Amino acid sequence: MSDGVRDAAYADAVSRTPQPNGPGRVTRAAPVHTYSVGRAPKYDARGITFSRISRKVASVYGIHKLLWDIRREAGVKQRYLRDPDAVLDEYGIDGELRGYMKTLDFKSLYERGVNPYLLYFCAIQLEVSREDYYAQIRGERPRVGQGQAQV
């Protein structure tokens, strides 16, 4: 189809369709994903609520931020070692990730998508030996930090 014929066919189709903004004005169609009430659906295709996804993402972000801050700021490290619950609350970490962080279960955190770079350097800052860290990641030891955070 040549450009001239295609343009003519488009112009003909436009002239026959109702124009909500008046004749001669072409408007873009609404996106297919727009919902009639103007809101996103409550569930995604897998049946998971968006609020549940948001909480999980926020909690993983909180873990990443905490691991980074423990590595970079000695005050955060000391507060975490004294009272992990208060620091975990401050960073918005809840659910299973909270339990893993309290017991320093690095393998479970890694399996849940926590950045391995941040995990490794946080372990070093929390004075977990490299041998213990690697043994836990390989699955040779259940937890390296059992009770370590409650110093």
Explain this structure:
This protein has helices spanning 3-16, 50-72, 74-82, 84-90, 95-102, 106-111, 116-125, 130-138. It is elongated. Residues 30-38 and 145-151 have low confidence and may be disordered. Helix 2 (50-72) packs across helix 3 and helix 2 packs across helix 7. It is built from eight helices and no strands. It has a domain at 50-150: Protocatechuate 4,5-dioxygenase, Chain A (Orthogonal Bundle), CATH 1.10.700.10. The longest helix has 23 residues, at 50-72. It starts with a helix and ends in a 13-residue tail after the last helix. With 151 residues, the chain is mainly α.
Task: Spell out the blueprint of helices and strands.
Blueprint: H1 3-16, H2 50-72, H3 74-82, H4 84-90, H5 95-102, H6 106-111, H7 116-125, H8 130-138
Helix pairs in contact: 2-3, 2-7, 3-4
Briefly summarize what is shown.
The protein has 151 residues and is mainly alpha-helical. Helices cover 57% and strands 0% of the residues.
